[in-house]
């Protein structure tokens, strides 16, 4: 199948927000561009990281972009699209910096995919959603393809850790099959295609696990790295594929069994784990799971009990300690 390589990019260092889980209210000390308090832009250092990443990725991907063998997907949260901006600008203008000037790819766009978006813990309230693609393209990111529709939308009440793994398994299975089908339909099924996905820490860790099928018994284990603006690379296992020869998505059972079938879409090998050699300051702000970030025993849910996996409530908890959480 066409998709042979996936690159994962975590957004750069961002500004912060605060959550009061007893009310489900997100706030920020600074106004954010979209006006959404859980949708911060990059901090000044993150902007510098994004620029350095743009220099590196434009060199690495200029050939694929010029040959129309590159597809870029991103979470729709502002910080991810802002991180991609220098890379997309350089590729569109042909600023790859290769020995011979790379051909520009002026038609290169980014597809906003909510299925690879941020992880928010299970909650009694609705968790944040990004701004709509049409607004993001019109006001901030003209390279965003606002005609693209997400293949998967996360649960607005958040997810437990196991659930976010399965969400990424389904999203990636659908996404890879969609691009495979696109190139097969163009009569270019024999050409190698690279995917660049820009997202968030939890999403990148889960993506590493669901692509390779390598998942630790303890989901808090620090296995796949996710430094700010770190780049991970996964290569499709030779001879492996998902779906049928027309690129149709595999049945649900395929991606739900990613833990035992070697990973989604036929399985992948990790050949670079959040590399940061392109960054002046190297590895920064690494992260790994520290148990469920669950807010389902606060506020209204405190009298009903926590939300469980099927969306229902259990018996009320004995103790509840509301407070503010800085994220």
Automatic annotation (TrEMBL):
Region named Disordered: 298-327
CDD domains: HP_PGM_like (cd07067)
UniProt xrefs under PANTHER family: TRANSCRIPTION FACTOR TAU 55 KDA SUBUNIT, UBIQUITIN-ASSOCIATED AND SH3 DOMAIN-CONTAINING BA-RELATED
Listed name of the protein: C6 zinc cluster transcription factor-like protein
Organism: Diatrype stigma
